[in-house]
Design goal:
two-stranded antiparallel sheet, 6 strands, alpha+beta, globular, 227 residues
């Protein structure tokens, strides 16, 4: 009987200790966690991780279907929290692609994901405007980008102008020669203008079969600001 009581107390102590440890991690980034691109209002990582109740309401509310739950591979605390996914659509479709427009067309520029969040994990800044919210920044891999490797490709450049307009577009060309030959145009990301909407990643064709077969991701991908 004494041995049974001892084991019970030991098990209880281990359980309490583990609970306290995990609770303490709730306000900190877990050591092995991956930095993720979050939905609008989720850029305060500590607030999101500590308040998210994994209800999936933001995922269900997203009209563009670009919010998905993070997996265990992104870290224990990140698991089942919302992250942005822009590569889950067919590349090269300028008329049919998914990105985050802050629900400009559907809810007057107020992101539905933040509006339906019941816990405050997604909280828009007091001075929020659709133009001021920044989800991340597009990062271009010149080793897998078709324009840098072989021939002219304009998908990311064209869609950025289509979505953001000429003045606000974050992707421009460099190295155009005097004759303006297409095969000398190399896309460049202006990080200061990028809001991480994901349109460029959505249409990128670099990882399509026959282009960069060994690529693990598209040549232009939205990354977290603090990565």
């Amino acid at each position: 009987m004494a041995e049974k009581n001892s084991l019970t107390r030991r098990t209880l102590c281990i359980g309490v200790g583990a609970t306290v440890a995990m609770a303490g991690l709730g306000s900190l980034r877990y050591l092995g966690s991956e930095a993720l691109v979050r939905p609008p209002g989720g850029q305060n990582e500590e607030n999101l991780v500590s308040k998210c109740v994994h209800c999936y309401r933001c995922i269900e509310a997203c009209p563009e279907q670009v919010i998905v739950p993070a997996s265990i591979g992104s870290g224990v605390l990140n698991m089942r929290t919302p992250r942005m996914e822009f590569s889950d659509c067919y590349p090269g479709q300028l008329d049919d692609f998914r990105y985050c427009d802050m629900c400009a067309e559907r809810n007057g520029g107020v992101p539905l994901c933040a509006e339906v969040c019941p816990s405050g994990a997604l909280t828009l800044p007091a001075d929020y405007t659709p133009d001021s919210e920044v989800l991340g920044v597009a990062v271009l891999n010149t080793e897998t980008c078709i324009a840098y490797r072989s021939s002219f490709c304009a998908f990311c450049h064209d869609v950025c102008i289509q979505v953001r307009g000429e003045d606000k577009a974050a992707i421009y060309y460099q190295n155009a020669d005097a004759s303006d030959a297409l095969d000398t145009r190399l896309p460049v990301v202006d990080a200061a203008k990028c809001n991480g909407c994901g349109a460029c990643e959505a249409v990128c064709v670099s990882a399509q079969a026959g282009s960069a077969m060994d690529a693990s991701e598209r040549a232009i991908v939205v990354k977290p600001l603090d990565e």
